[in-house]
Amino acid sequence: MLIDTHAHLTDVKYGGAREIIDNMEADGLERIISVGFNEFSSAYSVKLAEENEKIFAAVGVHPSDANEVGQGYIGALAELCSSPKCVAIGEIGLDYHYEDTDKRAQRRILTRQLELVREMDLPAVFHVRDAYGDFYDIIKEYSQCLTSGAVMHCFSGSKETALLYAEMGYYISFSGSITFKNSRAGEIIEALPLDKILIETDCPYLAPVPHRGEINYPKYVRFQAEKIAETRGMAVEEIIEITKNNAYRAFPKLR
Ligand SMILES: [Zn+2]
Fold first, then answer.
1. Cα of 63 to ligand 1 centre, how many Å?
2. What is residue 234's predicted lDDT score, i.e. its pLDDT?
3. What's the gap in Å between 7 CA and the centre of ligand 1?
4. What is the pLDDT of residue 191?
5. Three-state SS at 32
6. From CA 184, how far away is CA 191, in angstroms rounded?
7. Can you say how many angstroms the Cα of residue 17 is from the centroid of all Cα atoms in its chain?
8. What is the pLDDT of residues 151-163, one digit of tens each?
9. Tell me: the pLDDT tens digits for 70-86?
10. How remote is the CA of residue 205 from the centroid of ligand 1, in Å?
């Protein structure tokens, strides 16, 4: 059975995600982590998780929402973290991809949420894009906040960066982008220790080949397992089993 460790079930395209949740068994899905990116989607993810046995939540404010945060966002997130179904704080991080990003605001909400990670003693789910240098500096300074581990979601960095984080004990999570023709993830997948690899969809975005360009769904996480199996010369069922066990280790409350 598969685990999608990073899905946005709160997206309007899914209209409440009833169909996805009802079909989990038939689709071979054991667990889905619905990930928040602002206060609303975090609360909504926890609600979905509390109402559905096999759904779990991560709560946090995404760097692209850094300028939208309200006064009480940390208190609101802290309250959501206390749900038995909230397995992580995320997605949080830095995203310098677009020119108009307010880097200072991004760093401010990241460090504030890293303090929350320490208070709540939960793993962190990191979104990092075109900002690996600054991100690394912050993580070094706040390393005492990260005693429950971390996941580099939708990893897009270099092989050296991936190995560096794996050595620090972080998990490296791969989305549908590893199935794209121009992907350079192959050499990273070959080099990483198998016990540090996670798979995810980041749906509704980044649908894998052969669904590229369409709406993405949690069940498509299987294509990431197939790609990794092909790259490592292993059976897909073996990769599904290994990444599933990794997910349960990375997120202890997912049990
Ligand atoms: Zn995401």
1. 11
2. 98
3. 7
4. 98
5. strand
6. 12
7. 18
8. 999 999 999 999 9
9. 999 999 999 999 999 99
10. 8
In the chain, the percentage of residues whose pLDDT exceeds 70 is 100
Torsion of CA 185, 191, 192, 193, to 10 degrees: 150
Q: How far apart are CA 200 and CA 154, in angstroms?
A: 8
- Has residue 120 got a pLDDT over 90? yes
Which residue, among 221, 250, 229, has the nearest Cα to 1 in the 3D structure? 221
Which domains, from first to last, does the chain contain? 2-254 (3.20.20.140)
pLDDT at residue 51 tops 90: yes
Q: If you measure from the C-alpha of residue 207 to the centroid of ligand 1, how many angstroms do you get, rounded to a whole number?
A: 12
Q: Cα(185)–Cα(19) distance, rounded to whole angstroms? A: 32
**Packing angle, helices 103-120 and 73-81, rounded to 10:** 30
Per-residue pLDDT at 99: 84
- Tell me, in angstroms, the distance from the centre of ligand 1 to residue 239's CA: 22
Distance 133 CA to ligand 1 centre (A): 21
Angstrom distance (rounded) from CA 81 to CA 98: 30
Question: What does pTM read for this prediction?
Answer: 0.98
